[in-house]
Hints:
The protein has helices spanning 2-25, 38-60, 64-70, 73-98, 102-124, 130-150, 155-174, 178-202, 212-220, 222-237, 242-248, 251-263, 270-306. It has 338 residues and is mainly α.
Amino acid sequence: MAEKSKGERRTGLLNGFAAYGMWGLVPLFWPLLKPAGAMEILAHRMVWSLALVILALLVMRRWAWAGQLLRQPGKLGLVTVAAAVITVNWGVYIWAVNSGHVVEASLGYFINPLVTIAMGVLLLKERLRAVQWAAVAVGFAAVLVLTIGYGRPPWISLCLAFSFATYGLVKKKIGLGGMESLAAETAVQFVPALAYLLWLSARGEATFASHGAGHAALLAATGVVTALPLVCFGAAAIRVPLSTLGLLQYLAPVFQFLLGILYFHEAMPPERWAGFALVWLALALLTGDALRTAHAAARALRSAAVAPGAGLPPAGTVNPSRKPDGVTAGPDPVDVRP
């Protein structure tokens, strides 16, 4: 049994590395789709993602959720909101990468956990500990430093961080699995995306059929680029602890940051380094606090388990499968990345 558990964890870790690694390396893919513009790429991503995810759900015979969702107008409304928010996120990210702003885009996913926490405080009235308040304050200082360095607010980063944090908040309320959620959201996106592609084609501005089979295949592959990391993420999420996924999620912006500097040769003046250093300090504070809390919860559970006559943890004991009051384990990783 222990051998099987160890094998499951290893499989989960490999899938987690694969998911966040693919999300981190995706800036290498979007430039391959030129001369298609960001809007055309985005529309193809929506159309082909729906086609692929429907095929996957047909193979897995997972359709019961669809009937239940259609009978819940409130959830359908949330799905529409999630689809709109992730559309903004995807579109800005594709545009940023193809316009030479990979480093600034990576910053958005570095500060996303801080934005998620801030939204939890402002919208959900969650309570923070002192270290978490310090992390948010350092993150705010980093944005100020970067604003001075860029000569403007880092709007790409802020747009990506706030849209993704909002998306995560809405997805929590919907309560669908990764594949099901993507299917519902891309179903909402499909009609306007297809209409845009048909309009583009009627104007003679579509690149899908005018730049060869290779270009068409790459545009169709946007569905694979969207769905494959999601499948790996789902396999990881059921096999490794939330705290481990929380650490793995930083792989994606780290890879994006390194690609921006080493491959795309984007400028990093001293004030920009200073801003990123403050962001990394904030994340270090947040991660350290999350790990301490997770270890404390695990110790409490073990102590309750060995107590005389204890079959279940006593009332008030922290359940490590969920977060204690407030934001204690950092933001949950969300399953749809750029």
